[in-house]
Write a structure and sequence with these properties.
The protein is mostly beta strands. It contains three helices and 22 strands. The protein has a four-stranded antiparallel β-sheet, with no helix packed on it. Strand 18 and strand 19 form a beta hairpin. About 1% of the residues have low confidence.
Length: 355
Amino acid sequence: TGNTTLTNVTIDDNLTGINGQTVGTGTLTPGQSETINTSYTLTQSDIDNGSVSNQATVTYTDPDNNTYTNDSDDPDDGTNADDADTEPNSDPDDPTQTTLPQDNRLSVEKTDTYVDANGDGIMNAGDRIDYTIIITNTGNTTLTGVTIDDALTGINGQTVGTGTLTPGQSETINTSYTLTQSDIDNGSVSNQATVTYTDPDNNTYTNDSDDPDDGTNADDADTEPNSDPDDATETTFTKDSKLSVEKTDNYVDANGDGIVNAGDRIDYTITVTNTGNTTLTSVSVNDPLTGLSQNIGTMTPGQSETINTSYTLTQSDIDNGSVSNQATVTYTDPDNNTYTNDSDDPDDGTNADDA
């Protein structure tokens, strides 16, 4: 840009691998320009830094054999324009700064598998939910300090992999939860894990897990801060609320005369069993014939209660030749629905009340 012929014009650009390259023929007359094209391939470290700063240096000799150097200037930065740089190099030339957009984000997907732990074919307490949590760096920066919390399954600040996830890297965490009777009574278990991580600028974020089976809130592109409405992983159970009520009879010759007659007795045994998988409440038994009205209360799955009651025969019963009797059990399921179940005679196989 001056009025003299410059010689021995060379350029250095360490970042792109240019080292003392001759510019054109090495000589530049006033007003003459030479263009050099070079390139640099980004590293992950550059992305994590968020920018690349680069400055080339040109060396040249004037007609008085003085040698100078001039650093390159970014013409897009008007504050330090290099359009009229006077030697010695007096202008505060600024490097060419390339800003790299950083996208710090994680995908956290959590799926569930129900396991019939005792193999009885029934959803009940003691069975298990196995969870698979897939944590993927879906952004373009390196994330560090990656940890996971899942209170339900007992995970507390567990390091994910090595604690560092590069772009595209995934880690899988397997964990499980053993069902309680309360879970079965509720009909479902809702669970959500939380992943904490730090971006290259030392900002810390959290991201809740998402159920990928719920397409309405897919966690396929979660941007920080955590803006996606992630949904918990919901495991639902089939609730089977039922009772078996069996009533057996035993004739008693009360006066021991060997004759079936008025004043003799029928002793009844009523066995009430919770044959479902839910807790039943307000369980009560009524038998109008014997005058029985008894409150059992709460029955957990598999629990049985036996009630004994009796009836004294009348002459009318003898004349009729038989007595028919049926008790009724009333109970409430976990959803507050009330049901009744009439007793069954287990000796009559056609209508067995075994389930």
